[in-house]
Design brief:
Layout: E1 14-18, H1 22-31, E2 37-41, H2 47-54, E3 59-61, E4 73-78, H3 83-95, E5 99-102, E6 115-119, E7 122-126, H4 133-146, H5 151-160, H6 162-165, H7 172-211, E8 218-223, H8 234-242, E9 245-248, H9 254-257, E10 265-268, H10 280-292, E11 296-301, H11 311-320, E12 324-328, H12 333-340, E13 354-358, E14 360-361, E15 364-365, H13 370-373, E16 379-383, H14 389-398, E17 406-411, E18 419-424, H15 428-435, E19 441-445
Parallel strand pairs: 1-2, 1-4, 2-3, 4-5, 8-11, 8-12, 9-10, 9-11, 13-16
Antiparallel strand pairs: 6-7, 14-15, 16-19, 17-18, 17-19
Helix pairs in contact: 5-7, 10-11
The structure holds S-adenosyl-L-homocysteine (SAH).
S-adenosyl-L-homocysteine binds at residues 226-227, 251, 301-304, 307-309, 332-333, 337, 383-384, 410, 412-415, 440-442.
């Protein structure tokens, strides 16, 4: 971020603008919405500016700006549409301590004016660092359409009612009250009876919420998918929106955690593959403790919570404590990985079954039905298979698997740093050591990428082999 968005208190402060043409008019239309004191310097002002001056909405000086004119200004706009004049006035304003915006010159501006959606007191500011004004306008148009024009009025009435709403306990119950006001009962009352009806409705709504029973805690076991936030389900997003407490594992990416409700408590219960940093018992207790305290707990697990996620142990702990729960499935690493290489997990006449294997379990490297897996055409998605690659390779070859069987390792599937390692059973462990993968990686035994990487639209750097 080269520009940090803030909302500046301008009530009663001086804002000075130099210029009297179209650029000046565009800025003044925005500035006139504020409670700032506006002074315009323009030898030849447009007639609108003259009219505003007559109405007392701004002060007009029919001359060029001079030293001393910006001495008490908080902001200054250079809007003469003449680079040398703009440079001259900017230099004065800057030396007199005002923050300067040069309307045609991003480089020489200390601040920029965003695209604004005005539902005062609700104001949305949209900026693109000057990179894509078209985009800013499109977003503005989209928001204008979506935010009802009565929103400003509802917000003003709501603001005056805040003290009353403080009778509700802080947190979820108070949020629920406001959500119902802004999105359901408020707009409805406004339609039916205007501002008076909205005020009456607020009183009733508050009473209902004060009478309501405190809700009980609940646990949602939610799949976060392989890492790309767009691969979250809508249900997962909704759960993130409601969470009071979010307990996540190491696979959950920062981009996804960003989506959690801002007030949610985030707890990292990440375990490394070898040597847990927080024991499963600790995690179970943590979930139960928060839910018993009345929180909406989201237990967020990478991929699908039902795949190598120790879900059952957590469900047992939660049920044991008499807490309600539900599971929101997610996209597992195997699905994301085959998608990355344009292959199917199952295929007619090749494999009618697919195995999800773990490379290691509680006892160490995991044993599997190697004899069956060694048959031609078998496909297996091997989770946590990096450290156990040599062991798996040895077992399969010992049981007669063809050394040239294709194997593909996908690291960071679905994420910007996704890498694809195309190899064979014979070369698997050496190639893996050489590649030095550091992120989560899924080994797909029995499949190679369908087409050359270029045909899969993969950026070059994603290729390893
Ligand atoms: N519940 C998860 C799996 C947890 S086990 C799921 O459904 O995907 C952890 C293993 O999953 C990792 O060791 C790795 O093998 C695999 N994995 C998880 N996310 C991955 C990703 N984005 N890319 C590749 N492998 C991933």
């Amino acid at each position: 971020m080269q520009h940090f968005p803030i909302f500046l208190a301008v009530s009663g402060r001086n804002i000075v603008l130099s210029g009297g043409g179209d650029a000046a008019l565009a800025k003044l239309r925005l500035l006139l919405k504020t409670e700032a004191r506006l002074t315009v310097f323009a030898p030849n002002p447009a007639s609108e500016i003259e009219a505003w001056a007559v109405d007392g909405r701004l002060e007009l000086q029919r001359r060029a700006l001079q030293s001393g004119d910006t001495a008490r200004a908080a902001l200054f706009y250079a809007a003469d549409e003449d680079p040398s004049e703009d440079a001259r006035t900017s230099a004065i304003a800057r030396s007199e301590g005002a923050l300067v915006n040069n309307v045609d010159n991003l480089q020489d501006s200390q601040f920029i004016t965003p695209a604004i959606v005005d539902r005062d007191p609700v104001t949305v500011a949209i900026g693109t660092e000057g990179a894509a004004p078209v985009l800013a306008r499109a977003i503005k148009a989209d928001l204008e359409e979506r935010l009802p024009s009565t929103l400003g009025t509802l917000a003003r009435i709501g603001k005056a009612f805040r003290k009353m709403a403080d009778h509700l306990p802080m947190g979820r119950r108070r949020r629920k009250f406001w959500a119902e006001y802004y999105f359901r009962s408020g707009p409805r009352a406004m339609d039916q009876g205007g501002e008076k009806a909205v005020r009456d409705d607020l009183d009733q709504l508050l009473q209902q919420h004060l009478d309501a029973q405190e809700r009980e805690g609940h646990v949602a076991f939610v799949g976060a998918g392989p890492g790309d936030p767009e691969l979250l389900t809508l249900k997962a997003r909704n759960a993130l929106d409601k969470a009071d407490v979010l307990i996540h594992d190491r696979l959950v990416t920062p981009e996804i955690l960003e989506l959690a409700r801002r007030e949610a408590i985030l707890i990292d219960a990440g375990k490394t593959a070898f040597g847990p940093s927080m024991s499963q018992d600790d995690i179970n207790q943590l979930i139960v403790k928060h839910a018993l305290g009345g929180a909406q707990v989201v237990r967020l697990k990478g991929g699908d919570p039902t795949v190598f996620g120790r879900l059952d142990e957590e469900i047992e702990a939660v049920t044991g404590a008499g807490i309600s729960w539900h599971v929101v499935p997610g996209i597992t690493a195997a699905s994301a990985s085959v998608a990355a290489i344009g292959q199917s997990l199952t295929k007619r006449d090749r494999n009618s079954a697919v195995r999800l294997l773990t490379g290691h379990d509680m006892k160490g490297f995991a044993d599997h039905d190697w004899r069956t897996l060694a048959r031609p055409g078998e496909v297996a998605a091997i989770y946590m298979g990096k450290k156990s690659a040599r062991f798996i390779q040895g077992r399969l070859i010992m049981h007669g698997a063809d050394r040239s069987t294709p194997v593909t390792v996908i690291e960071n599937a679905s994420r910007p740093d996704q890498r694809i390692l195309e190899t064979t059973l014979d070369a698997l462990s050496t190639d893996l050591v050489e590649a030095g993968l550091t992120g989560p990686a899924l080994t797909i035994y029995g499949l190679s990428p369908r087409a050359a990487a270029s045909e899969l639209n993969l950026p070059q750097e994603q290729e390893l082999a």
